[in-house]
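Shift notes (night). Ran Fructose-2,6-bisphosphatase while the centrifuge was going.
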Amino acid sequence: KKRIWLSRHGESEFNVQDRIGGDANLSLRGRLYAGKLPSLVNEVVGDTSHLTVWTSTLRRTIETAHDLPFAKKQWKALDELDTGVCDGMTYDEIAANFLSRDEDKFNYRYRGGESYRDLVLRLEPVIMELEQLETVLIIAHQATIRCLYAYFMGLDHEQLPYARIPLHTLIELTPVAYGCKEKFYTVDI
Ligand code: G3H
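Came back to this:
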């Protein structure tokens, strides 16, 4: 029976500093998550013989998948929302210098970057391929995981940019008649 697993990368050095964007390495806690992921995946997935792991092309997802002994594929389409001129800034710096995104977070496009609406389009080929496969584990980023999660859970444009996708958590989606059943497995670190 088809299931999909989603996870954000482990905590990165930028997460620790509350910075967005960039291509940082994992923090110590993030590396601990990466180290614990293989046994969690074995436990939760059961039969891993057809499991494929997809990551983005950014270091933090590749490092998170490093210890997983399965076929892997990197997708540029899974890279984090491009925050344009705000790349590398902290949320406080952004709040001090830019208009609030909360008016319409789905459509807010960072100058020189992307909006969640752009991201949904960018992820179309990923979703097409995902529909064909039985068992895929996707290790990506908060914004890209939100879009995939919203697609399978039927969240609308208002809900999508606020979906709670915690760090160090493996999300299992099982398609049912309408939508999906969800289960969150959080690793204590
Ligand atoms: O910019 C990338 C973040 O992971 C997305 O979070 O849209 O809530 O700021 P945010």
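The first strand starts at residue 3 and ends at 8. The pocket of glyceraldehyde-3-phosphate is lined by residues 20, 80-81, 83, 141-143, 161 (CB under 6 Å).
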